[in-house]
Amino acid sequence: MHLEDGALIVFxxxxxxxxxxxxxxxxxxxVRCISPINANNVENIAITGTMVLLMAAVMHGVL
Length: 63
Hints:
Low-confidence stretches: none
Number of helices: 1
Radius of gyration: 14 Å
């Protein structure tokens, strides 16, 4: 996915949109919220371009 200069991605502030999933981190099995941008069973994907990812500010009522 290529994003144009100045593109803005805003993620949902609804925690139900990020379910808890089993995963591994640094070789340890764990659980965590799913990332807002994720994919399964894919190869050779990328997000390119100049963009702003906006999540924390919206979730904390800053914007």
